[in-house]
Design a protein that fits this description.
The chain is α/β, with parallel strands linked by helices. The protein folds into two domains: 5-110, Rossmann fold; 118-344, 3-Layer(aba) Sandwich (Rossmann fold). It has helices spanning 11-23, 34-37, 54-58, 80-86, 99-110, 131-144, 161-164, 175-178, 187-193, 215-228, 242-250, 262-276, 293-300, 314-319, 331-344, and strands spanning 5-7, 29-31, 47-50, 68-72, 91-94, 118-124, 149-153, 196-197, 200-203, 231-235, 253-259, 282-287, 304-308. The chain has an eight-stranded mixed β-sheet with strand order 8-9-7-10-6-11-12-13, sandwiched between helices. It has a five-stranded parallel β-sheet with strand order 2-1-3-4-5, with helices on both faces. The longest helix is centred in the C-terminal third of the chain and has 15 residues, at 262-276. The radius of gyration is 25 Å and the shape is elongated. The relative contact order is 0.12. This is Septum site-determining protein Ssd. InterPro entries: Cellulose_synthase_operon_BcsQ (IPR017746), P-loop_NTPase (IPR027417), ParA/MinD_ATPase (IPR050625), Rv3660c (IPR022521), Rv3660c_N (IPR059050). Residues 7-114 form the Rv3660c-like CheY-like N-terminal domain. Pfam families: CBP_BcsQ, Rv3660c_N.
């Protein structure tokens, strides 16, 4: 694969550009003179010209091409736009102010735009409804069907999805390593940094004191997830924070797990009111109880997303550190298979 081309003799500027490219997961070809750039000029997906080399490059008459950027660290230089036109650049980027834009430009050429992955949020209508189990089961079922899947733990007080799935000892980054992230994150770098098992990539919390996820960090992770994965499953807290709102704004579907009893429905109604402020489609997944599914969904005024009868020995399996049993004879397995078939056409 051809790499972006940088043309500069300014070592300080080159250091900045290498750092910015690394943030986007990009490797560069570097030319310190116009003659060195000639073999790469037409085939590089992106050309970044330092303003120190613009006049020398223009004097060689390079053929016109798209995606040429002139980069400068000099504010208010009246000659900047003349040099931009001379080299056929489409824009002038002034560093450090334009670093985020340049990260995006590099990332676009190493991660070509693809159909964005489906984001599914899962929330519990009340504590103990089983939302985390459903989120983890859905992600596992997808990965077993060879669907590229990212599972995101967005509940700081949920105990950790890595623990639920028996992966608390797995090597890899946790939210504490990512909370300072802003701007674009390479999906390749994200997947490499996170624990992956059975084809499933997981972002969870560390043990001990937990800080809220900044909205900017969640936004960066979600956008990387949508570029690099077919399915992104987010386990939400019941009390929505800024990070949860970011996820809901990108959700194609939100599943609200409701226990089929009066208290469960009343609690779910309160959670539903918050969800509806930030997302479109919400479906009720009904845990078996004293009320019929129609009564539950009719009381809440939401479509029926499926039923989850009690699954014997599930709690004991999870306490042993086993992954949720997802065979076709289990209620969780049947639900996940039906959902993935409907939303992703997955019969794998």
């Amino acid at each position: 694969m051809d790499r972006p081309l940088v043309i500069t003799e300014d070592h300080d500027l080159l250091d900045d550009l290498l750092r910015i490219a690394a943030a986007a997961g990009a490797e560069l070809d570097v030319a310190h003179a116009p003659a060195h750039a000639r073999p790469y000029w037409n085939r590089a997906p992106l050309v970044v010209v330092g303003d120190d080399m613009a006049d020398a490059l223009a004097s060689t008459g390079p053929p016109p091409r798209p995606r040429v950027l002139l980069v400068t660290r000099t504010c208010d230089d009246p000659d900047t736009w003349r040099r931009c036109v001379a080299v056929g650049a489409q824009a002038v980027l002034e560093l450090p102010a334009a670093e985020r834009r340049l990260v995006d430009e590099f990332a676009d050429v190493v991660e070509p735009p693809a159909k964005p992955g489906l984001v599914v949020c899962v929330a519990g209508g009340r504590g103990g409804a089983g939302a985390s189990v459903l989120a983890g089961s859905l992600a596992l079922a997808a990965s077993r069907r060879r669907i590229r899947t990212l599972l995101i733990d967005a509940d700081p007080l949920g105990g950790g999805l890595d623990l639920l799935l028996g992966q608390e000892e797995s090597d890899g980054a946790r939210w504490s390593d990512l909370v300072a992230r802003e701007g674009r994150v390479s999906c390749t770098a994200l997947q490499a940094a996170l624990p992956t098992f059975a084809g499933l990539t997981l972002l969870s919390f560390s043990r001990g004191e937990v800080e809220p996820i900044p909205a900017e960090a969640m936004r960066s992770v979600l956008e990387a997830g949508r570029r690099g994965f077919e399915l992104v499953v987010v386990d939400l807290p019941r009390h929505l924070d800024q990070a949860a709102v970011e996820a809901l704004g990108r959700a194609g579907t939100t599943l609200l797990v409701v226990t089929a009893d009066v208290r469960g429905v009343l609690a779910a109604a309160q959670v539903l009111a918050s969800l509806r402020e930030h997302t479109g489609e919400v479906r009720a997944v009904v845990r078996s109880g004293v009320l019929n599914d129609d009564v539950v969904t009719g009381s809440l005024g939401v479509p029926h997303g499926g039923s989850l009868p009690d699954q014997p020995r599930l709690a004991a399996a999870l306490d042993r550190g086993d992954v949720p049993p997802l065979g076709r004879r289990t209620s969780l397995g049947r639900f996940c298979a039906a959902f993935l078939h409907e939303r992703l056409g997955a019969d794998r």
